[in-house]
Amino acid sequence: MRGTALFNLKKTLKRSRESWFGKVKNLFAGHKIDEELWEELEQILIAADVGVSATCQIIERVKERAEREKLKDTGQVYAAIKDEMIAILTECSVSDNDKTEQNGNGPAIVLVVGANGVGKTTAIAKLAHMYKKEGKRVILAAGDTFRAAAIDQLKIWGDRLKIDVVSHQPGADPGAVVYDSVRAATSRGHDVLIIDTAGRLHTKSNLMEELKKINRVITKSGGTIGQSLLVLDATTGQNGLMQAKHFTDAVGVNGIILTKLDGTAKGGIVLAICGELKMPILYLGTGQDLGDLAPFDAKGFVEALFAS
Ligand SMILES: Nc1nc2c(ncn2[C@@H]2O[C@H](COP(=O)(O)OP(=O)(O)OP(=O)(O)O)[C@@H](O)[C@H]2O)c(=O)[nH]1
Ligand SMILES: [Mg+2]
After folding, report:
1. Please, are residues 241 and 273 in contact by the beta-carbon 8 Å criterion?
2. Ligand 2 geometric centre to CA of 96 (Å)
3. 107 versus 25: which is more confidently predicted?
4. Residue 199 maps to which CATH number?
């Protein structure tokens, strides 16, 4: 991970480190390796939002390794905890997380879904900014037609970034917006099309049906989804994991953007996502500005979580 990115992540994870992960280091200072140590470690990890599944996985793996390698020194066990966390995060990550290669003549399509208020529209602006800096021609689709303000919000980002936004009137069929955006992106030769979607409709089942329909419309209009990204808000902790299942069933999510990591002491949620959802985290949202999006890197993340 590059120097500044690591520095920003260290800053972002300050609260998680001070509240929880710093305690792991203290726990090992002057403690012998016994059952009490494992129990205290378990309590800290659960409180840090690591989740039951990932916590058990970490402890089992470290215990096994401590026995196999006959580790006596608590410093070695402490290092093993970090190694196993990196291993868990690496196992659920993907080596090639850039699926924004174009599809024939059409654009690479990125569909962004998630519950209301988690940070979808902001994440779309950040992604658009990132792709633009890479020299890609980006276009946005205002697929959240449920709230008039949602369309305006995306248009404001479009103006700021000097990027086209395809939109219809509030209350219009999102499928029609998506259809037009795929056609527009194809005929105007855009490289990447990013589609915003609603986070809330009258009922949850309406929302899931709408997302399924958007999926079908993309195929009908000649496009293929490169990435379906689920946005989760780190401050909602374990509740976010419950939401994930509905979205996964509706659109077959292939990666996660975890936002608002700067606003929580529960950075451990990253391990819970990997442990329970087995889905790769592709980006971290670390603030409200355009540059506050960090590509996820397992080693850099764990280093920042335990940094002194
Ligand atoms: N601190 C912080 N705030 C964020 C981050 N990402 C988004 N936000 C803020 O969260 C709020 C909601 O963000 P939106 O992007 O509007 O969320 P959304 O998912 O599009 O919301 P709906 O369209 O209502 O479903 C805004 O005030 C954003 O500035 C982040 O990484 N860090
Ligand atoms: Mg939005």
Report:
1. yes
2. 27
3. 107
4. 3.40.50.300
